[in-house]
Amino acid sequence: MISFVLRRLAGLVPTLFVLVTISFFVIRLAPGSPFDQEQKLSPEVRANLDAAYGLDRPLYVQYMRYIAGVARGDLGPSFRYKDYRVTELIASGLPLSLTIGLAAALLAFLVGVPLGAWAAWRANSLVDHALMGFSLIGVVLPGFVVGPVLALVFGIYWRLFRIAGYEAGDPGFLVLPVVTLALPVMAYVARMTRDSLVDVLQSNFVRTARAKGISPRAVLMRHALRPALIPVVSYLGPAVAFVVTGSLVVESVFGLPGSGRFLVQGAIDRDYPLVMGMILVYGAFTLVCNLIADLVYRWLDPRVRLT
Amino acid sequence: MSARTRIAVAVLVTIAGFALAAPWLTPWAPDALDWQHLASPPGFDAAHWLGTDRLGRDLFARGMQAIRVSIALGVLAALVSVIIGVAWGATAGYIGGRVDALMMRFVDIVYALPYVFIVIILATLFPRGSLAALFIAIGAVGWLTMARIVRGQTLALRQREFIDAAIASGARTSTILWRHIVPNVIGVVIAYATLTIPQLILFESFLSFLGLGVQEPFASLGSLINEGAQEMESSPWMLLVPATLLTVLLVAFNLLGEGLRSARETRRE
């Protein structure tokens, strides 16, 4: 088991390496430079800036330097936020993004699974149709639609939550962002749970359990739910990755100082090291989430051998 | 066709009809400023059916123009992703072996990344506001799932006797792919492509929401939502109008896609 995990972890390194390499060169293809401003810099100043950040060297030299830096855990200086290292910038926003993301994933599964089970329990009833209708809308609606509308209703009309002027440590600010982020995942989880549970409820071992005289409720809870959750759990990894990266929308809607904004702002500003850093950190995070989901999957379903 | 699919088609046709006919339905151009009616709410006042924004631009005209852009971009980008996806998946599935492993490994790697990154990186590659570039960028992320589906279908098809017959009669690989494999996967591809369109419309709106997509003076539902969200306290319709339009559009496309897919599944059973 441990050797399996270690092997899989080692397998992440080449994937990340490919990711970093591709994005390094692709980003450099983009027109524009980090030092483009309203006012044109004189050629001498420009040359000095380029030299200071090593941008005057051939691209492959820059690439080698970057990889060497990453190997030492240094993601380079930010071009736009003067005197900040990329590592410092990301570290300043990541805890908030992770908090929102993980809370949203938790909420999505804790609410989504029971809702899906309820719909499967009453399959093809009014409850089922209503729940699945809502979940279709939930799956389809993006955060940048849900977020502002929730803010309008709960923040402005009903004044239940504060939506502007974030203060660290006040959980009241985080309720709407977390709900916004959780909704699509929750809806998707509910759909998956329902479909999978409806299938399992028709299988032979469930019929046997029923024939033994176990109450339908106990059959559902004790026998059917666990195998039905296998596909749902395998969605856990992508879901966590989705909510953590999706937090950039929510952060921009609710004005939260997470790390997501660095990706967008960095891309607009051509702040290469910042964008690269974000891709590296979020990419690694996504891959680890997928790995964890794989492990949980294997634990839930012993038929999947550890190969 | 189920009732839901029919409703979805009716809704889509209505929306598309309104979007196309909009220039004749409203006296206002999408970028015309009406200084007498800045930020006025929806109503019959001066024919601003859905109100105006902060600069006095008509929201009906802007919304319909945004839908034209969204649908055109969505359909074109879906086409791009269908072409890449079918070519990639059919080739990998038919040739198999190491080529297949390598090609699908590439798909896996790109798949493992949040699409947000890929779209943002690609969007920064092109000058801001270039619609053609935008749809290439969006189409370039849509093909991954398509490639997987087509590969799976191709793997199954390759075992069939008519492929053996084609090989035995000396057909070239490219002929077999084009004449025998592709026509047999096209049904799945169409069903899936209808599900891709709303995703691509979503990408476009999302990029525009972040300021990386469609640029002024053109409107996108995403950029309208972004502008509306900033004014929602005083003028909620600026948010609610584009948000509703986008919701209806996405739900209708998804219902249509699901309907087509389940119609296929029923037929197979």
Key features of this structure:
heterodimer, A: 307 residues, mainly alpha, MetI-like fold, B: 269 residues, 9 helices
Structural features, described:
- The complex is a heterodimer of chains A (307) and B (269).
- Chain A has 12 helices and no strands.
- Chain A has 307 residues and is mostly helical.
- Chain A has one domain (86-300): MetI-like fold, CATH 1.10.3720.10.
- In chain A, helix 5 (126-140) crosses helix 7 (175-201) and helix 10 (236-254) packs antiparallel against helix 12.
- The mean pLDDT of chain A is 84.
- Chain B is mainly α.
- Chain B is elongated, with a radius of gyration of 22 Å.
- Chain B has helices at residues 3-25, 59-95, 97-112, 115-125, 131-158, 161-168, 173-210, 221-231, 237-268.
- The model of chain B has no long low-confidence stretch (mean pLDDT 84).
- Chain B has a single domain (3-17, 66-268), classed as MetI-like (MetI-like fold, Orthogonal Bundle), CATH 1.10.3720.
- The interface between A and B is large, with 44 and 39 residues.
Describe the SSE topology.
The complex is a heterodimer of chains A (307) and B (269).
Chain A (H helix, E strand, L loop, with lengths): L1 H28 L13 H10 L6 H13 L14 H36 L4 H15 L2 H15 L17 H27 L2 H8 L4 H19 L1 H19 L5 H10 L2 H29 L7
Helix pairs in contact in A: 1-12, 4-5, 4-7, 4-10, 4-12, 5-7, 6-7, 6-10, 7-9, 7-10, 8-9, 9-12, 10-11, 10-12, 11-12
Chain B lengths: L2 H23 L33 H37 L1 H16 L2 H11 L5 H28 L2 H8 L4 H38 L10 H11 L5 H32 L1
Short description:
The complex is a heterodimer of chains A (307) and B (269). By secondary structure, chain A is mostly helical.
* Sheet/helix structural class of chain A: mainly alpha
| Rg of chain B, Å, rounded | 22 Å
Instruction: Report the average pLDDT across residues of chain A.
Output: 84
* Biggest pleated-sheet summary of chain B: none
**What is the CATH class designation of chain B?**
Mainly Alpha
* CATH superfamily membership of chain B: MetI-like
Q: Which CATH-level-2 architecture of chain B?
A: Orthogonal Bundle
The count of helical stretches of chain B stands at 9
Total helical elements of chain A: 12
